[in-house]
Write a structure and sequence with these properties.
Helix content of chain B: 40-55%
Oligomer: heterodimer
Number of domains of chain A: 1
Distance between the termini of chain A: 42 Å
CATH class of chain A: Alpha Beta
Largest sheet of chain A: 3 strands, antiparallel
Number of strands of chain B: 17
Order of helices and strands of chain A: HEEEHHHHHH
Radius of gyration of chain B: 22 Å
Radius of gyration of chain A: 15 Å
Structural class of chain A: alpha+beta
Number of helices of chain A: 7
Largest sheet of chain B: 7 strands, mixed
Largest interface: A-B, 21 and 19 residues
Strand order of the largest sheet of chain B: 4-10-9-8-7-5-6
Shape of chain A: globular
Helix content of chain A: 40-55%
């Protein structure tokens, strides 16, 4: 089980990237995990071409939640919303590179949840989701 | 080898009674179960009693004119008598079976509270309370308009009794609702004194005994409490069963909560009349197997002796506090002495959730989080703690394993 705390997780968990909230920001959203008290406030700047130009976050939590948020922030920086929309839970698992037990899934997905719920405030993002649903049909 | 055996208490004999303890957690790691404040394990006697009921005499209670129903009713009501003696209640009519502590508190809130609490009234709880003794009162306050206040606790983890006295002196308090033992700080609150102070001020007192009943003799008449609630599953009994004790005159005056079968004496389409105590508060088919199991849990604890259990757990807790104090960067919360059998702690540089995961990897089961006591953690200025909680079957060597595993977690985090 020590391998759950591999070098990359300890690195990101203890020295997280992109910390500190952006002001002004296009989206500013905070999620909480009431079970363990983890908290994550995610701020993102999106330019007129729907490209993410800034990511800043502030949170408290376990190494898994902090590391996954840090990795997510690095990953989405400079990406288009179209690319970000395509991110899934499996991408997070791949970055973490370790099996995540059922009781830690919420920790690992805290950042992705903040991202998805926060971006839902953008019309372009909602349109993207609608398009995807149509594709599925 | 550490010594766990005293003349009256043989922990190895106790352990032999609990089947779940005789397994490896994972290869090379015996199970070290230190999550007893969340839920304890069960002795074979309790498990077998429930199986026996299902195998030999399951039937609904209070209804059938047949042999199985009579046997089931006798066992179900027999458990009520056992609980009555266990708490030293005056009458078995004062023992209401519930689903657990939470349901007991909600029952009092929605019956006694709904009738007696309104604008201008005050209910006092505490900042250290479990959510189960905060949220039902917040919900009722929003419905009926009374004021909810909280007694603060001091830096040493004990309630601020001066503040409590002042609240009673200056506010129109109708109810004091307080936990007996804290599930995070381990504090044992002075219930007898608080009951007297509440009564002198003309208020009633409800006590959440979820953390005290498993660990110490409780005499509801000596404490002179008006309502006392607890759960079966933290005292080697089943889940899904708990008890509300209430003084008979209070219970008699309270309206029922849930309506249905068994809680009525007459039902006509124009209206119904309520059944006598305790059935007025037990609508529907109850948790029969669970009530029977609870009776066997009471028997088990009584046979071992609550005094012996208390002494053993106190010895373990003192030893744990001593050993944990040796760990650099570790902080234990709560009073130094006179506390219940648990230690909630933080270790600098390791989130409690990570700590719990790394302890689990060593076979040590603990709980991490805010333990359903968010206001308490806010007051301490922390988001979470890791909690090790002890019971009659735990040993000093298990505490050694806990401490070694904490040191190992620190090495993983390069601390």
């Amino acid at each position: 089980m020590d391998n759950m705390y591999r070098e990359n997780i300890l690195d990101h968990g203890m020295n997280p990237r992109n910390t500190g909230v952006l002001d002004p920001a296009t989206i500013d959203y905070e999620v909480k995990n009431p079970l363990c008290g983890d908290r994550l406030r995610l701020t993102i700047r999106v330019d007129e071409n729907n490209i993410i130009t800034g990511v800043g976050w502030d949170g408290e939590g376990c190494a898994i939640s902090q590391a996954s948020a840090s990795m997510l922030g690095e990953e989405i920086m400079g990406k288009s919303l179209d690319d970000v929309q395509a991110l899934t839970k499996d991408d997070i698992y791949t970055w973490l590179g370790i099996p995540i037990s059922a009781n830690r899934v919420k920790c690992a997905m805290l950042g992705l949840k903040a991202l998805n719920v926060g971006l839902y405030g953008l019309e372009y993002w909602r349109d993207l989701q609608d398009r995807e649903e149509e594709d599925e049909e | 080898m550490t010594q766990d055996t005293t003349l009256s208490f043989d922990v190895e004999r106790i352990r032999a009674d609990f089947p779940v303890l005789h397994q490896e957690h994972s290869p090379g790691h015996p199970l070290v179960f230190l999550d007893n404040a969340a839920s304890s394990q069960r002795p074979a006697a309790v498990i077998d009693a429930m199986g026996d009921y299902y195998r030999r005499y399951h039937a609904n209670v209070h209804r059938g004119i047949h042999k199985l129903s009579e046997a089931a009713t006798a066992a179900y009501e027999g458990s009520r008598k056992k609980v009555k003696r266990f708490l030293n209640a005056k009458s078995k009519r004062e023992i209401i079976f519930t689903r657990g502590t939470t349901e007991g508190i909600n029952l009092v809130a929605q019956t006694w509270g709904r009738v007696n609490l309104g604008p201008g009234d005050v209910v006092i709880s505490t900042v250290m309370e479990h959510h189960a003794n905060i949220v039902p009162w917040q919900m009722l306050a929003a419905q009926t308009g009374f004021d909810l206040r909280f007694i603060p606790f001091k830096a040493d983890g004990t309630l601020d009794m001066d503040a409590f006295g002042e609240m009673l002196d200056t506010l129109p308090v109708k109810l004091v609702t307080v936990m007996h033992g804290s599930n995070v700080l381990g504090t044992i609150n002075p219930i007898e004194q608080m009951a007297q102070m509440a009564h002198d001020a003309g208020a009633l007192i409800l006590v959440d005994g979820a953390q005290s009943v498993p660990h110490m003799p409780v005499d509801v008449r000596a404490l002179d409490v008006d309502f006392f609630v607890f759960s079966g599953h933290k005292m080697v009994g089943p889940t899904g069963i708990g008890v509300l004790y209430g003084k008979r005159d209070l219970l008699e005056a309270m309206p029922p909560w849930m309506g249905g079968g068994d809680m009525i004496s007459v039902v006509r389409l124009s209206g119904s009349e309520w059944n006598e105590l305790p059935y007025k508060f037990e609508a529907g088919t109850p948790s029969i197997a669970e009530a029977i199991g609870l009776g066997y849990a009471v028997d088990y604890l009584t046979e071992v002796g609550l005094e012996n259990i208390h002494a053993h757990v106190e010895m373990l807790t003192d030893y744990a506090l001593e050993r944990l104090a040796e760990v650099a960067g570790l902080t234990v919360y709560g009073p130094e002495t006179g506390r219940g059998g648990l230690a909630a702690f933080t270790v600098d540089g390791i989130h409690p959730h990570d700590m719990a995961q790394l302890l689990d990897a060593e076979g040590v089961a603990v709980r991490a989080g805010h333990h359903c006591a968010q206001p308490l953690h806010d007051e301490l200025g922390i988001s979470a703690t890791t909690r090790a909680s002890f019971y009659l079957y735990n040993t000093k060597s298990e505490i050694d394993t806990l401490v070694e595993s904490i040191e190992k977690a620190k090495r993983v985090f390069k601390l």
